[in-house]
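Figure caption, in words: inputs first, then the predicted bound structure.
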Amino acid sequence: MYNPPDYYLVDELLTDEHRLIRDSVREWVSREVVPIIDAAAQNHTFPEYLFKQMGEIGAFGPYIPEKYGGAGMDQITYGVIMTELERGDSAIRSAASVQTSLVMYPIYTFGSEEQRLKYLPKLASGDLIGCFGLTEPNYGSDPGGMLTKFEDRGDHYLLNGSKMWITNSPIADIAVVWAKNEDGIVQGLIVEKGMQGFTAPETKNKWSLRASITGELVFDNVKVPKENILPNVSGLKGPLKCLNSARYGIAWGAIGAAMDCYNTALQYSLERKQFKKPIASFQLQQKKLAEMLTEITKAQLLIWRLGMLRNNDQATPAQISMAKRNNVEMALKIARDSRQILGAMGISGDYPIMRHMMNLESVITYEGTHDIHLLITGFDITGIAAFE
Ligand code: TGC
Ligand code: FAD
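Bound structure (flavin-adenine dinucleotide present):
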């Protein structure tokens, strides 16, 4: 049984319900993800068959009300699920992040009751796969500049433009797409697979998140029915609110990747002998391990507090940025140090470290780059935006 570090007994802060869900997701990851994930990453394929299983274990929409197929749980539940999934692989956590925070959240928060009832239960069960289109070829960190647009054509909207780097787009049944209306205001539209003029080609040759499928969204005069617009939000704050939920989940998730690297490095250092001693007996390796555990513990406490703030609807976007930035950088540093502890073995697919390390290069970039989150904190502290 996987046994992650818990130096400050953070487990005691969880309720029995949190632990029950956490343990069932942990067991599922050990059984279904760990045995196949290296091959999936090496072969650059997303194990799509896991999607339905993720629905069954409650990985999609845990905080969405039960009426719509969710579990009606709190933000800590969402967080512990993300930690467990990312211990398996960031690709698996990504699939859950997108489905919950970037597809179910906007439909639940900004959608009509008809849209909620039509899409949410099937998204929760994994019968429908969703994706989220914000980034464009020329507008990544600056999504407000987007060129994708739609016109009101009386009985439908006509959508034109393209999105890039979209998790799950080639296999998605629906896409929540952010585009500008004729007044240049950003709005969200639900675009369904099969709509004429809509294609989603795959982006190949990634060295990171190789077990996740990524692609484009291309809209060439796509007729979108009027009932597919998200009626209850307009402006860039719509997609940015979705990102708050996803960034929060990533801040929990990264801890799972970090713990898996730390556990692997600790175990290896106790077993591997050089100069007739376990390498764990050398001060240089102990320093790495001690610092890793310190950083994991700090990240756990940071995200625990943020989760409590989110449960009370008190967390600010800037607080979320701080946690996403800190915890992902923490995980990436731990992956790099762990890889060194394993020496040559650190680059082998027999261990999970190199895969986590490469994945985390995407995680530190998507959902707002490391730099952008620093600038968000800088803006929050000084009141001066340094983005442009
Ligand atoms: P700015 O003028 O500052 O803001 C526009 C409006 O939005 C409001 N706002 C927010 N509201 C809620 N939550 C937030 N986090 C918000 N940030 C800003 C703001 O108050 C304003 O509201 P209003 O009422 O005045 O209109 O916007 P800006 O264009 O100057 O940009 C600010 C900036 C740079 C922080 C923002 O654009 C940003 O966060 N950029 C990063 C883009 C990003 O994160 N993209 C992620 C794409 S999705 C993805 O990566 C999925 S990966 C999936 C996976 O596989 O896990
Ligand atoms: P750019 O914005 O071009 O940034 C390049 C560099 O410039 C970065 O280092 C950045 O920090 C820096 N920079 C930019 N602006 C500033 C500034 N003002 N000040 C200082 N430095 C700055 N997007 C979606 O919409 N949906 C998805 O599902 C999705 N999934 C993704 C999956 C993967 C695997 C990846 C890699 C990306 C995904 N993205 C997705 C896109 C992701 O959100 C963007 O890559 C990210 O927001 C950064 O945009 P960019 O790549 O265009 O980089």
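Residues 166 and 262 are 30 Å apart (CA to CA).
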